[in-house]
Design a protein that fits this description.
CATH superfamily of one domain: wza like domain
Helix content: 25-40%
Structural class: alpha+beta
Strand order of the largest sheet: 2-1-5
CATH class of one domain: Alpha Beta
Oligomer: single chain
Shape: elongated
Number of strands: 9
Radius of gyration: 32 Å
């Protein structure tokens, strides 16, 4: 008998807490100021819509808003310059001096005959020695090498290319066709470009509801591209 009484008491207390929770739950309050003598007209402050199949269909098929490219992003894309990093391979051309351009013979490719950026950010170049190139653009490296060779050659004409981009990569995983890594090159690359490089989102990626997570060392961010 005592067990049944305790059980009934427990049920009553649970119902009381549930009803109190409904009154205290966030989102159930309407912030509306009115004199105590007046009752608010809910039809004027609340938009009531019946939940119908037509309403659900309209919400599911509603076209998402199209966000144009911002002026800031457009400027960043136009001003983008690739900076050389560790592992990149530089192809250095010294006009009228093939012994400096391809010192190991013309049978080798630009990647095979190129100068690999070492772990300390330097390359070794004839006459000049160690040259620090990491964090610099190809134009800055060209100017640096031209000044260094000016002591050994008369008015040297030099051009610098990147034969292999190995220092920076995107890793794209998740609901995409071919998860993998995408190299960062001298062509501006956006997040959507990287996703398209691996085949784009799969059929089960929820289309416009995709959320992309970007992780860079200690920082990370989540966003929708649409």
């Amino acid at each position: 008998m005592r067990k049944q009484t305790n059980f009934r008491l427990l049920v009553v207390l649970s119902l009381a807490l549930f009803i109190t929770g409904c009154a205290l739950a966030p989102g159930g309050d309407i912030d509306y100021e009115a004199p105590e003598s007046e009752s608010p007209d809910l039809m004027k402050i609340v938009d009531i819509k019946p939940i119908t199949p037509e309403l659900i269909w309209a919400q599911e098929t509603q076209e998402p808003p199209v966000h144009p490219v911002t002026e800031e992003l457009r400027n960043e894309l136009s001003d983008y310059e690739y900076t050389v990093g560790v592992g990149d391979v530089l192809s250095i051309v010294v006009y009228d001096h093939p012994e400096l351009t391809i010192p190991t013979g013309g049978e080798r490719s630009a990647v095979e005959a190129g100068n690999i950026v070492r772990s300390d950010g330097t390359i070794f170049y004839p006459f000049i020695g160690r040259v620090h190139v990491a964090g610099k653009t190809t134009e800055e490296i060209r100017v640096q090498l031209t000044r260094g060779l000016a002591d050994f050659l008369t008015e040297p004409q030099i051009d610098v290319f990147i034969a292999a981009f190995n220092s920076k990569r995107f890793h794209v995983t998740g609901a995409v066709a071919s998860p993998g890594s995408v190299p960062v090159t001298n062509v501006p690359l956006t997040i959507l470009d990287a996703v398209n490089e691996v085949g784009g989102p799969t059929d089960n990626a929820f289309g416009m509801k995709c959320i992309y997570s970007v992780m860079a060392r200690k920082n990370s961010s989540r966003f929708s591209p649409y």
